[in-house]
């Protein structure tokens, strides 16, 4: 039954069946996944918090998107072991840059040898700590305004609105911000009495608020895609 289908599947996608998702992975994603991304994905799978990683199909999507928009100067908030970071680093040119932020350096360093082996670590400027103060500093500084081609946000959902207030200044007109998890495990349409896990319930209101705010923001064009846990692309138009 359609209304139950999201609870029946155990994968990191909102598709109607495991088989369909598996088909995408096996037909399109895994055969073309760069060796380094495969290695990082397999390494991450052994980590206790592996649920946090960006899925392989989303990694492929980000890699393609970055090439389509010719992204060079990028930012990522929420690195974990670096799967989306590596997808970005492999997509941008050799002199491209990624300002990458995470409160946890250990997880980044777990994946770093794979990123180094892939020959793309020189593109990454990793900052350990909460992202918000760094963004505030960049806004205050002035010289970063309108300089980013692409920004990927995959961190603390309760701060997405705060991030957006700052990132809209930092992304260039015509550039793209991608907010991850905007369908939040399908919970955005769950009834009030649905048995949601505690953290899903807690962050759901923030995700709902973000989705409303993005839809009402005339400075951006948006497109919400059911890739991974939902990703909303925002193209700055003014
Ligand atoms: C879902 S994971 C990121 C997954 C990553 N994009 C990947 O491809 O594997 C979320 C990350 O956000 C980080 N995080 C949480 N709060 C943060 C904050 N205030 N500033 C920066 N990073 C934060 C967490 O430490 C965690 O590594």
From TrEMBL:
Pathway: Aromatic compound metabolism; phenylpropanoid biosynthesis. InterPro entries: Cation-dep_OMT (IPR050362), SAM-dependent_MTases_sf (IPR029063), SAM_O-MeTrfase (IPR002935). Its EC number is 2.1.1.104. It catalyses: (E)-caffeoyl-CoA + S-adenosyl-L-methionine = (E)-feruloyl-CoA + S-adenosyl-L-homocysteine + H(+). It comes from the Eukaryota. Keywords: Lignin biosynthesis, Metal-binding, Methyltransferase, S-adenosyl-L-methionine, Transferase. Gene3D superfamilies: Vaccinia Virus protein VP39 (3.40.50.150). It is an enzyme of class 2 (transferase). This is caffeoyl-CoA O-methyltransferase.
């Amino acid at each position: 039954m359609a209304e139950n289908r999201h609870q029946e599947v155990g994968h990191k996608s909102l598709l109607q069946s495991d088989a369909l998702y598996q088909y995408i992975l096996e037909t399109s994603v895994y055969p073309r996944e760069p060796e380094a991304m495969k290695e990082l994905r397999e390494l991450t799978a052994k980590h206790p918090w592996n649920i946090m990683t960006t899925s392989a199909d989303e990694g492929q999507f980000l890699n393609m998107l970055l090439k389509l928009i010719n992204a060079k100067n990028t930012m990522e908030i929420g690195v974990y072991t670096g799967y989306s970071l590596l997808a970005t680093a492999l997509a941008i040119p050799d002199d491209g840059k990624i300002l990458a932020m995470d409160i946890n350096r250990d997880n980044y360093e777990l994946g770093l040898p794979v990123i180094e082996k892939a020959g793309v670590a020189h593109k990454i400027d990793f900052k350990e700590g909460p992202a918000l103060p760094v963004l505030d500093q960049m806004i205050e500084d002035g010289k970063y305004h309108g300089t980013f081609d692409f920004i990927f946000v995959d961190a603390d959902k309760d701060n997405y609105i705060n991030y957006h207030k700052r990132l809209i200044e930092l992304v260039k007109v015509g550039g793209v911000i991608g907010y991850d998890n905007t369908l939040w495990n399908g919970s955005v349409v769950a009834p009030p009495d649905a048995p949601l896990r505690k953290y899903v319930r807690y962050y759901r209101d923030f995700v709902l608020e973000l989705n409303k705010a993005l839809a009402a923001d005339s400075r951006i064009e948006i497109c919400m895609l059911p890739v991974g846990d939902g990703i909303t692309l925002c193209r700055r138009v003014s």
